[in-house]
Amino acid sequence: MTHDDNEFRVAVIGMACRFPDADTVTDYWNNLCAGRESVRPLAPESMPADPPAGYVHAGALLTDADKFDAEFFEMPPREAQLTDPQHRLFTMCAWEALEDAGHIAAENPTPVGIFAGAGISTYLLRNLVAHASLFQTPSSQLHALHGNASDYMATRVSYKLNLTGPSVAVQTACSTSLVAVHQAAQALLDFQCDVALAGGASVQVPQEAGYIYEEGSILSPDGHCRAFDADAGGTVFGSGVGVVVLKRLADAIADRDHIHAVILGSAVNNDGGNKIGFTAPGIAGQRAVIREALSAAGIGADTIGYVEAHGTGTKLGDPIEVAALSAAYREHTEAAQYCALGSVKSNVGHLNSAGGVAGFIKAVLAVREGRIPASLNYTRPNPEIDFAATPFFVNTELRTWSDDVRRAAVSAFGIGGTNAHVIVEQPPTQAATPVQTGPRALLISGRTAQDADRIAARLAAHLDGSDVELASVAKTLAHGRRRFPHRRMVVVSSTTEAAVALRKPAAGEALPAPALAWLFPGQGVALGAAVLELADKVRPFGDRYRACADILRARTGFDLDAAVRNAEGTEQSQVALFAVEYALAGMWREFGAEPRELLGHSLGELVCATIAGVFELSDALELVVERGRIMAAAPPGGMLAISKGADVIAERLPDDVWLAADNSASRCVVAGSPAALFRLAGELSEEGVPSSLLPVGHAFHTPLMDEAAARFAELVRKVPRQAPQVPFWSNVTGAPITAEQAVDPAYWSRQMTSTVRFREAAIGLVGRNQGTVALEVGPGKSLVSFLRTADRASATVGTLGVGLGAGAPETAIVDAAGRLWLSGVAVDFDAIYGGETPASVSLPTYPFALKRYWVDPPEVTTTQTRRIDPVQPAPPVSVDSEPAAASDEDEFVVSVRNQVVAVWCAALGLEQVGNDANFFELGGDSLLAVHVATQLRSIFPLDLALGELFASPTAVGMADAIAAHLMQRLDELSDSEVELLLNQPGAAEERSNNA
User: Fold this and answer.
1) How many C-beta atoms lie closer than 10 Å to residue 850's C-beta?
2) Is the dihedral of CA 415, 416, 417, 420 positive or negative?
3) Which of 234, 415, 831, 890 is least surrounded by Cβ atoms within 10 Å, i.e. has the fewest?
4) Catalytic annotation, residues
5) What is the pLDDT of residues 647-692, one digit of tens each?
6) Count of CB atoms within 10 A of residue 54's CB?
7) What is the DSSP letter of 425?
8) 370-394, pLDDT tens digit by residue?
9) CB-count exposure of residue 402 (10 Å: 0-12, 13-18, 19+)
10) Is the CB of residue 213 less than 8 Å from the CB of residue 54?
């Protein structure tokens, strides 16, 4: 394949299925390779008591065909019950296929098309139709139609998954889903969309039911499909759903998608009238469609090593199919029996509208894996087929396919004559891209906490023993999965570590609108060699750190690296800490973690001012150098951290000790003469109050800094200052800093001598930012721990650990980013990993929480099924009713409300509805609204328009509107009608039903 060929090729980048004995594509492939036949005898208890002549008690069943995750797809229970399982299962498979492709349609503007079809709704015919009460009104009839007619399956998926490309229903009987693959590929090549889903669904209801064999029919006499065999007598219909995701090959390669196979060419035609009957196959049409597909692919038939045939196992159809294939292939080659032939119908039965995609997925897997599964139930050829004279042989064993180029063809021929043929090739070998080693965050999210835990467990099992590239796993999870509120995360350096760590991941719940605040610590935190290691390994930090080092060296002669290594004294430690925090802030900004507000502690407030634009970086660095020098020249002193609130401690301080920092309700710092601090520490110890002297030689934020503060004000006055562009909080006032304060040199003088009012500022910050997420932009976690005492609900994250056990700084950064993500903060992990582009990989898809949503036929009663009578619903229980207040309400209004709630419960399929619940938020739509209005008008003599009835779409609001309307109409009603309404609540309904 040349580069130019890519423009006319289509990649298969995602697959999902529900086939007999297979809930996943992996299950399906394992079954095929094991030679497993999923058509088997049905349960004895489902055998008819008096089976008719020719009855065959066999079938290919689909597990959990009656189940669905209605909550995930925001579908009310009643709507789910009235929706054909074909639509429901196809919707779930479409989601899984897009996840396998790593494409999030809801968050991607790329137009995604869908081409799909389903069989006739046997669920509608055999289960729903007999319930006449389900179809009493035009609106209820439309609801049933939308949920069961095959016309709406593709568009329903487009609606549920937010697909904005062409959404087309395909109906060509047995060839439906392969025709859908062809149409999807053509839509991509015509640039109607950039990604396309294709597939089909066929679910037989009831599942546990056999069939009646008639001689000469398409059905098998013994419950087996024996494609191409002398004993072939027909096929067995089964149930299945399959979906594939397609993309132009050039785009898939550029996007580093996981390519399963490549579609080289495809064709669709119809037999027309050139055959013996409408349902009969046509040799001329089949030959023509195969020739056209070969021409579209631009290849010779002699390069195809496997054909996945339509292969229904009928005495007439099989010979015609082989004859058509041979005629087309003989135009390219005279070679005999070089090409394997098989039919998946021998494994899973004839899946009708899903049969084509079942064969297509099998062919894709064969070219990808380099193995051809056996075609089952074949011992000797149909006497009408002379295989020795054809290019084909029936493949009866799992065959290793070692050809350098592996190509397969797939056929599907529909009753009515629509034929489809598709040719696929193994995926191209994509060029390797350099990927850095190092830690990766594996990000997982679910709609519920239980779902998130199940995803983590599935992924742990998938990665156990896997050699998949960790960077690819991280990329797929970050970009190929929709983000839900309940989140899990691990940071690991290998898939082996991941398989273990995922069994107990970090957990969090994303806030709807997280307000990120950056916190900057002051002097007293440790730095050390970890900072230099981080500068070497994390470019966004290293670039800014080195920029600070260059400015300091050029303008002040200050050696930043030496200060970071040693951090001896105020002169070095303040400058080193400022540069590190500034570089970390720039790093986080490049990683997309943009703050809403800033809060610094002591020196940290100068970092805030610089980031907010009050000072230019070069000026700020010079100021910090001078600040350190003049503070180092101040009178000696000390500082004592106390595990007690400032309010208590301030009352007992001696004259030569001052409150330096009010950090939290249980933490403060005092400063003053060393002797006085030593005495105070002894007194506190006797009282059981912990305290510790800080490793500093001065009493910061006390009057002992007055002279240094005055000198610093003069230095500030000499540099340009601007009003802050990002809000930050004042240490002096404990409130947001004003523009006037930020540019006032006297303010920065007071900031050096005044108490740091961090507690007050923290309370104010969380108070005006609902959903605060605090990130400590510096070593340690002291400030975030202080902030947690102000608001236990706030999420807090530290950037770098300190001391023993802190771990590698590079890992700490990835872990901090992951913990921000747990709280809902958007983080650019691509930037963290250096912009690398690993390929996507197939990973376990979403574990839907399946529940039974089913309407049994009238004659069947199943105790496991929650039946909801659509005509006479059970009296509802209002979840937010207030019994104590009910007695104060008008009995008539309460009666109306109960009727409204009952109608709502029946329409929505819910057991209870809150009085203040919104009808549309519960899953109602315009059609259900019409149905509800019709039901209410049958109960009450209403003359209200639909818009008036739903002006306030709650049970309370609707009941009030109805009651008010009826009271206004009292003069128009007869005495008997008034008596029914006012004195006998509910009798109006009886009157309506008896009318």
Assistant:
1) 15
2) negative
3) 890
4) 174, 310, 350, 602
5) 999 989 998 999 999 999 999 999 999 999 999 999 999 999 999 9
6) 13
7) E
8) 999 999 999 999 999 999 999 999 9
9) exposed
10) yes
